[in-house]
From TrEMBL:
Keywords, in A-Z order: Signal
Domain Amidohydrolase-related: 315-406
Protein name: Amidohydrolase family protein
Pfam families according to UniProt: Amidohydro_1
InterPro entries: Amidohydro-rel, Metal-dep_hydrolase_composite, Metal_Hydrolase, Metallo-dep_Hydrolase
Signal peptide: 1-18
Lineage: Bacteria, Pseudomonadati, Bacteroidota, Chitinophagia, Chitinophagales
The keyword Signal is assigned to this record: yes
Length: 430
């Protein structure tokens, strides 16, 4: 037994140092020029054979009049390549979960208790996660790192994927509170040992407890002389002045209608996460200014009566209705790496390629509150840019060759590439 344990620990230690030679890139200083690429701006516009000038991390110029002979400029020739904004994972626990349920010490995404609005996911974010570099290799440069749990789980923060520690990683701190709505989908006979137990009534009671919490928080925050500080009520102040959003995790229509009640009673800025049946009430979501983050594109439909390809068609329905939506990748095995291919599937089922791109760039930035500085290639924004030899939405041609975060030329090495090289060398594979 001791021998087995020693081998296991040795294996974990060996894996743990696999990427220790990859350090964050230094700050971008001076001018960088990406010349003659096909630029997909993220706004729906495509600029062929166009150059980008970056100055101290910001996009300074876009066009064909950029001086390619600028003294001291670093120039990357993107001729024949595709240039995109860096992709954004809108909802993930990357950096909070490393080896799922197998190694508990590597998981820090869930707290005890049901009402934890004062929990901040960012302070637990691990910048040395081995998953992060594999995401960067796929063009994913940003993520909204979210806590998990029961009912109100705490705040998420937007991070950039090239940092020494969580303080360096922060791109927008505490942007949203997360409410995991109890299921209102009736499943008769599932785990109910008490025949008198009504799971829907129990779920509605818990939802009412959350509403009561917000009513008390509203009264607390409306008072200027509370005497005693309540950390939980203080933590949701941003919901009432709309400096924070409320992300409500739910899927079926009944749950989404309940989410609309939160908008009507409290005036919250609400985003639905999951929302697999959002296609059924898209006009109502638009009417109430509710945005959507679609989690599982490559999945079965929620209802047995739905079309088998309904998850693929939902983005186009939301687009047609004018609902602001983003696409993310919450699949446990891919851990975010299929983000752009999820968008590619949506492009095959009704979206244009540029609309699908916006769902993982500019739309995501708008929902997360960072569209003023990221999500698209526009003058004045941070230079968060990726370059591919082919179409990034197509897994057959997507090969990311270069990536910039705030103009910093980041290292795209990762554990997968290192292992590939190691065994290619061993077996003399070209």
């Amino acid at each position: 037994m001791k021998k087995i344990l020693f081998i296991l620990l040795t294996s974990i230690a060996s894996n743990a140092i696999a990427q220790d030679n990859i350090s964050p890139a230094p700050a971008n200083k001076g001018i960088t020029i990406i010349k003659n690429g096909t630029i997909h701006t993220g706004t729906g516009t495509v600029l062929a054979n166009t150059s980008i000038q970056v100055n101290n991390g910001k996009i300074e110029k876009i066009g064909n009049d950029i001086n390619l002979n600028t003294t001291g400029a670093t120039i990357f020739d993107a001729t024949g390549m595709q240039v995109y904004p860096g992709f954004i994972l809108s909802n993930t626990n990357i950096g909070l979960r490393e080896i799922a349920n197998q190694v508990k010490a590597s998981n820090d995404y869930n707290e005890l208790g049901e009402l934890n609005p004062n929990i901040k996911s960012i302070v637990a974010y691990n910048t040395e996660s081995k998953i992060i570099n594999t995401l960067r290799s796929n063009g994913i440069l940003f993520a909204n790192v979210t806590p998990r749990g029961s009912l109100i789980a705490g705040t998420s923060s937007v991070v950039q994927f090239d940092a020494w520690n969580w303080e360096d990683a922060v791109y927008l701190k505490d942007n949203a509170q997360h409410f995991y709505m109890p299921s209102l989908l009736s499943r008769p006979g599932r785990n109910n040992v008490d025949p008198n137990f009504d799971p829907i009534k129990a779920a509605r009671d818990r939802i009412e407890n959350v509403k009561q919490f917000f009513r008390l928080a509203k009264a607390y925050n409306a008072s200027n002389n509370n005497g005693v500080t309540n950390l939980k009520f203080e933590a949701v102040k941003g919901l009432f002045d709309k400096s924070q959003k409320l992300f409500i995790h739910c899927n079926v229509v009944k749950e989404m209608l309940t989410a609309i009640d939160f908008v009507k009673e409290f005036g919250f800025d609400v985003t639905l996460v999951g929302a697999s049946e959002s296609w059924q009430i898209a006009p109502l979501l638009k009417q109430n200014n509710i945005s959507v983050i679609l989690e599982e594109m490559h999945s079965l439909p929620t209802s047995v009566d739905d079309d088998i390809d309904q998850p693929f068609k939902t983005p186009a329905i939301l687009q047609k209705a004018g609902v602001l939506f983003a696409i993310t990748d919450e699949h446990a095995e891919s851990t975010g790496r299929n983000l752009m291919f999820n968008a590619g599937t949506a492009a095959a089922y009704g979206l244009t390629k540029e609309e699908a791109l916006a769902a993982i760039t500019l739309n995501a930035a708008k929902i997360l509150g960072v569209a003023n500085k990221s999500g698209s290639i526009e003058v004045g924004k941070d230079a968060n840019i990726i370059i591919s030899t082919g179409d990034v939405l197509d897994m057959r041609t997507s090969v990311i060759t270069k990536a910039y975060i705030n103009g910093r030329d980041i290292n795209l090495d990762d554990k997968h590439k290192q292992l590939n090289k190691k065994y290619s060398d061993k077996y003399s594979i070209k």
